[in-house]
Design a protein that fits this description.
By secondary structure, this protein is mostly beta strands. It is 12% helix and 55% strand. The chain is elongated and about 60 Å long. 19% of the residues are buried.
Length: 196
């Protein structure tokens, strides 16, 4: 058990170090208006495979594409969008970045005060234990729900109070099989499939 705790602590230190480095280089996103409602969207990516989406404020996906590489650049013609508020959502392996913009009659205005980054929960499975960690820089809670292969809820809890959220779930007393862990934070749910 001490060896497992040492590994979990080591993993937390490594994740913290990676997050510190990630702040320097991950998701350098830039959106430039080329002319009326024509946007050049670029990003430097050091967060693995990413998904780039354009969504309205009701979370309806208007555009979605996957990308793997370090430099992404694409022109978006936003002339067909109705007036309103939208966002680019860039989802990587460790975080999600939102870039909010307003479509007006004449142009597109980016809202720098509404741009946010959330860190995704991280899971590690070792033997019959699952360690869940989450960097919560804004003290956002993390809801955990565990379901078996029959979609029966086995466990639910909400972690809150601090920037380093973590929980070790023991699966010692449940039969071997497939489980789903739903991790909800900042209005977004991440699903982890676990085999015990």
């Amino acid at each position: 058990m001490k060896a497992l705790i040492k590994k979990v602590v080591l993993m937390a230190v490594m994740v913290t170090g990676l997050v510190g480095k990630a702040n320097e280089s991950d998701f350098n996103v830039k959106a430039t208006e080329l002319n009326s409602k024509l946007i050049q969207f670029t990003l430097n990516n050091y967060d693995g495979a990413i998904e780039v989406q354009v969504k309205d404020m009701l979370n309806v996906i208007l555009h979605s594409e996957n990308f793997q590489g370090t430099y992404y650049s694409k022109k978006f013609d936003l002339n067909t969008l109705p007036l309103g508020t939208y966002r680019f959502e860039v989802t990587g392996e460790t975080k999600v970045k939102y870039l909010t913009f307003e479509v007006t009659e004449e142009s597109v205005e980016f809202k720098s005060d509404i741009n946010t980054v959330i860190y995704k929960p991280v899971t590690l499975t070792k033997d019959k234990n699952v360690t869940i960690t989450k960097l919560a820089l804004n003290n956002e809670p993390l809801k955990i729900e565990v379901y078996d292969d029959k979609s029966e809820l086995l466990h639910t809890e909400t972690l809150k109070g601090g920037i380093d959220l973590k929980r070790i779930l023991s699966f010692v007393e449940v039969p071997n099989g497939d489980y789903k862990i739903y991790l909800t934070t900042n209005g977004k749910t991440f699903i982890e499939n676990i085999k015990i």
